[in-house]
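[Automated response] Your request has been received and processed.

Submitted sequence:
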Amino acid sequence: MKKLLLTTFAVGSLTGAFAQSTTIIQKDPQIEAMVKEVSADSLQSYIHTLVSFGTRHTLSTQKDTRAGVGAAKSWVLSKFNQFAKQSGGRLTAVIDSTIYQPDGKRVDKPINLGNVVATLKGTDPNDNRIFIISGHMDSRRSDVMDGKGISPGANDDGSGTAAVIECARVMSKHAFPATIIFVAVTGEEQGLLGARYMADKAKKENWNIEAVLNNDMVGSNNSNETNIINNTQVRVFSEGLPAYEMEKNVAEIRQYGLENEGKARQLARYMKEVGERYTDNLEVVMVYRNDRFGRGGDHTPFVENGYAAVRVTEMNENFQHQHQDLRTENGIRYGDLEEFMDFEYLRKNTVLDLATLANLAKSPSMPQEVVFDFKGLGNSTALTWKKPAAGNVKGYYVMMRETTSPVWQKKFFTAATEINLPYSKDNYLFAVQSVSNDGNESLPVIPKVVRRQPQQAQPSQQPQQSKSTKKQSRKSKK
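Generated structure:
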């Protein structure tokens, strides 16, 4: 592991005492090498080709080999198949299609709805975890039903699709214990159709999806109206309360103050910590809502099916270059064109995705049965857990933060499956991660509460003496 010395951080011992020391940032050399392969030029070339199809609207032609969403799907599939040749047979790609009927909303005719899916199979047969990165390839004009006019969709969401393709290019040359799925979905602008089809299929077939990174508009650095230019921050949207089976969990959430601890929120924290570890000059800004105000994205169907899913989006949107017909009015050029993009910014956001995916796929699975060993009142915290179902484990990080902190503040490493910390459960939140031999961390697990009756003091009894002891006692009396 490569180590970098940075700022002051609290590092705990196994039993609870802690001291201030210098933070050691550990980087996995394999992930660091992959990060360096991500290319702004490659990303720009993908977007240039996507724009060349004229429109990628979901209702556009699927028969033309040079224009429309059908041609775009075929091209993305060809890129995945190209990368498959360097994967040693681990990467396979298909267009997963279904016939979608008119819905009286944004689909007025039967369409062949197809997601382009590349699967990088994990190498551990005992590890069935799946990690997904997605972007939507379809584009739109001002009129959401216009499937014929020019709709470049360079940033929305050529940028997210390009990030998916580039991650597949780089990562397909490497092996991971867990499975990674790279998917370019269609139907987003018509109502998240492709993502919903995939999420429902995953739920029906019981896929073990641990994380979904949805990239939608990650390549522009400026905003209209406010005229802010910023390519050093990116937003990650995540829900705090679970959309899935909320009614079953609400009592526990209220009782223990877990309103900010949903699966998606944990994934967002993880993405911030790991992504900033490998991505220079980029701050991950966590936004505490599932998506932008009053809007939605392709991660939402996964969230609604109980999976941890987040949306990655540029820091400042420019609405002159989003959902707009190509035109010039009052000196302002409207439309989602390549010329309005920042490909270095897109590279950094792609690195954020790749580092997060790689660290997750190389980690052991999450520890099991993580619980507070709650025996009564006290100012210390006892935690126990069981080893993960898959992966080689060097040990575990027990994570701690104040209830008001957005990120984990301290980590205590232990090779055991229990720990006792001199910090009160009243004032702090805790979680546990599995750690691989290479230092790759699993997603954190918030402990459940197990109430145990405190042991009752037993009446004191005189220990029985052995025969030899009795004889020695009699001799001493004589």
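Summary generated for your ticket: The first strand starts at residue 2 and ends at 12. The chain has two domains: 2-28+366-451, 38-362.
If you did not submit this request, please reply to this message.
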